[in-house]
């Protein structure tokens, strides 16, 4: 649905060049929620603005829904942008317009007749849970309600792609969760492809199918969240579970870091080890996180005794477990 191929974005000239994006390639599959994670200055905002060419890349290809956007003329680009909705961190609502009129604005721009606009606005207000706020003004709304208006406005022209530019960064944790739940619901109900940028790992944990980690304008890692969280050395795994440094090895013990996903997190694995093997088990650290309603855990164990190596092999062979030294 969205494909970047060798995207570069350079600002400045001569000795004053800044590389905002440096050879970025990624693919956002249709119907998925794709997160781009990075700290301030990583290039996230530049990247998402390249999707609809609000920022035109210095070089490289931007393909959305099968169209190479960088080759379109002005009229073609305007038409393509109708299929790409965007929501913003600070809402960007028109203060002098009611909620209904804010949502209707994109439909006015494309010249849709008023009866059709009114019908569409009514549908969208219901979709985002604001049917009772049609006549309210932005100043009368909470932050979460303003963002719901922004989402409804972004969906007015029935886009196939929805972009989220740090859309929850200005919200409190409870409101953030409700907005993320709404985005996941819209993704499922409407088949929307969602690309969001964030510096918050909680956003990735809660709704993202895939993620790319951006640093200094380069993608340093990308893939399915479920795969990255159990991959040794992964940036995402490290963000979920900061690495625990084992103490100095004593008495021939074996250290093993175990990551377990889904139903494996429910298994009484340590009890199984103690029953099957002549082994001592010392838990040195760990934790459990929830990733899109799926439990993911990590434990650092010290295995000792005559069957320590066999116990470690047993763990490696278990479905749902990843073991690293």
UniProtKB/TrEMBL annotation:
<dbReference type="GO" id="GO:0005524">
    <property type="term" value="F:ATP binding"/>
</dbReference>
<feature type="domain" description="ABC transporter">
    <location>
        <begin position="2"/>
        <end position="241"/>
    </location>
</feature>
<keyword id="KW-0029">Amino-acid transport</keyword>
<keyword id="KW-1278">Translocase</keyword>
<keyword id="KW-1003">Cell membrane</keyword>
<dbReference type="InterPro" id="IPR027417">
    <property type="entry name" value="P-loop_NTPase"/>
</dbReference>
<dbReference type="InterPro" id="IPR003439">
    <property type="entry name" value="ABC_transporter-like_ATP-bd"/>
</dbReference>
<keyword id="KW-0067">ATP-binding</keyword>
<dbReference type="InterPro" id="IPR018449">
    <property type="entry name" value="NIL_domain"/>
</dbReference>
<dbReference type="Pfam" id="PF09383">
    <property type="entry name" value="NIL"/>
</dbReference>
<dbReference type="InterPro" id="IPR045865">
    <property type="entry name" value="ACT-like_dom_sf"/>
</dbReference>
<protein>
    <submittedName>
        <fullName>ATP-binding cassette domain-containing protein</fullName>
    </submittedName>
</protein>
<dbReference type="InterPro" id="IPR041701">
    <property type="entry name" value="MetN_ABC"/>
</dbReference>
<dbReference type="InterPro" id="IPR017871">
    <property type="entry name" value="ABC_transporter-like_CS"/>
</dbReference>
<keyword id="KW-0472">Membrane</keyword>
<dbReference type="InterPro" id="IPR003593">
    <property type="entry name" value="AAA+_ATPase"/>
</dbReference>
<keyword id="KW-0813">Transport</keyword>
<dbReference type="Pfam" id="PF00005">
    <property type="entry name" value="ABC_tran"/>
</dbReference>
<dbReference type="InterPro" id="IPR050086">
    <property type="entry name" value="MetN_ABC_transporter-like"/>
</dbReference>
<keyword id="KW-0547">Nucleotide-binding</keyword>
């Amino acid at each position: 649905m969205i494909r970047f191929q060798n995207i570069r974005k350079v600002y400045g000239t001569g000795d004053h060049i800044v590389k905002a994006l440096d050879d970025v390639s990624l693919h956002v599959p249709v119907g998925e929620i794709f997160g781009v994670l990075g700290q301030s200055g990583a290039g996230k905002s530049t990247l998402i603005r390249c999707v609809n060419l609000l920022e035109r890349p210095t070089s490289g290809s931007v393909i959305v829904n099968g169209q190479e956007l960088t080759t379109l003329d002005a009229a073609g680009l305007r038409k393509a942008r109708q299929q790409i909705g965007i929501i913003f961190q600070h809402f960007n609502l028109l203060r002098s317009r009611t909620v209904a009129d804010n949502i209707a604005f994109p439909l006015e721009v494309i010249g849709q007749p008023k009866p059709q606009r009114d019908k569409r606005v009514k549908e969208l207000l219901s979709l985002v849970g604001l049917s009772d706020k049609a006549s309210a003004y932005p100043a009368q709304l909470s932050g979460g309600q303003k963002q719901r208006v922004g989402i409804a406005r972004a969906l007015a022209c029935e886009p196939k792609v929805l972009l989220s530019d740090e859309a929850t960064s200005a919200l409190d944790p409870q409101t953030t969760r409700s907005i993320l739940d709404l985005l996941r619901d819209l993704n499922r109900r409407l088949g929307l492809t969602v690309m969001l940028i964030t510096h918050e790992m909680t956003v990735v944990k809660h709704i993202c199918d895939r993620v790319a980690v951006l640093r200094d304008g380069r993608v340093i890692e990308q893939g399915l969240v479920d795969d990255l969280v159990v991959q040794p050395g992964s940036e995402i795994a490290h963000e979920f579970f900061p690495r625990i440094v084992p103490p100095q090895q004593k008495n021939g013990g074996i250290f093993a870091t175990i990551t377990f996903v889904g139903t494996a997190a429910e298994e009484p694995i340590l009890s199984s080890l103690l029953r099957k093997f002549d082994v001592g088990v010392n838990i040195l650290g760990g934790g459990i996180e929830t990733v899109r309603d799926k439990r993911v855990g990590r434990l650092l164990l010290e295995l000792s005794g005559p069957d320590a190596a066999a116990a470690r092999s047993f763990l490696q062979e278990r479905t749902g477990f990843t073991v690293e030294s």
